[in-house]
Amino acid sequence: GCKLQTIYMAATGQSFEGVGFMSFNNFSFGQTVQMARSFAAELRKNGDSSADTSNNPFQSSGGSAEQMLNQIFEFAEMAVGAIGLDFTPNSQDTEKLVNMRYDQELQQKTRMFVFDDDQLDSSKEFVESCSGARSMSLSGLPGGHLSPVFFELDLNEFGADDPNVPPEARQMAQEAIGFQSASFGDADQLEELVNEVCGWILGKEPTRQPDWYRARSGPPLIEGSVSN
Predict the structure, then answer these.
(1) What is the pLDDT of residues 24-40, one digit of tens each?
(2) How far apart are the first and last CA of the chain?
(3) pLDDT tier at 98 (50, 70, 90 boundaries)?
(4) Exposed, middle or buried: residue 71 (CB in 10 Å: 0-12, 13-18, 19+)?
């Protein structure tokens, strides 16, 4: 979505009051297959780390099913590499487009939301394509690519705990769905993200910058000073 929005703004020149990019991604088609593989692995990891995994449908089953899934992704990666498929514009052309069209005015309106453990994020390359983008604001946040995703399912919320519902009906509903309750995601990480986005909309500065950006920025220089 972020890449499509970037292309749209470059092609139309449409102006916005503010631009927010979350987990900006500019992978090639081959890297997208790897991204899907990482996405599936993160789904399994997230399901395994939930508080109650006894009947969690998001928990990895392991065994032959997981091995088969890995084999499918490996085959897809080899097939894409052999055929040479890619998006248009590809990742290199998109970086050139950003460098040419994402000017100072757009950079000043932009906030990038970057998760610390997001292996699918291309925000660093986006900033570098903007010649360092010193005027762009960046928010560093805990979590990974799936941190914006959180939901809970509980049969009781659908009336299963209604005293007027016969016990046999509640049992049938649980057996049909396969679990009584389940959750996916991290509520604390989602809340921190929501607070950061709301703060940006209200004109607040980032709570903190991404680790990689703070490392490259270093301490601010005083005009006329010499940096070793």
Answers:
(1) 988 766 666 666 666 66
(2) 40
(3) confident
(4) exposed
Give the residue from 98, 115, 117 showing the smallest Cα distance to 107: 98
**What are the tokens at 83?**
């055929």
Which is higher by pLDDT, 144 or 78? 144
Note whether 161 and 174 are within 8 A (CB).
Answer: no
Please report, rounded to a whole number, the percentage of residues in the chain having pLDDT higher than 70.
53
Distance, in Å, from the CA atom of 50 to the CA atom of 112, rounded to the nearest integer, reads: 28
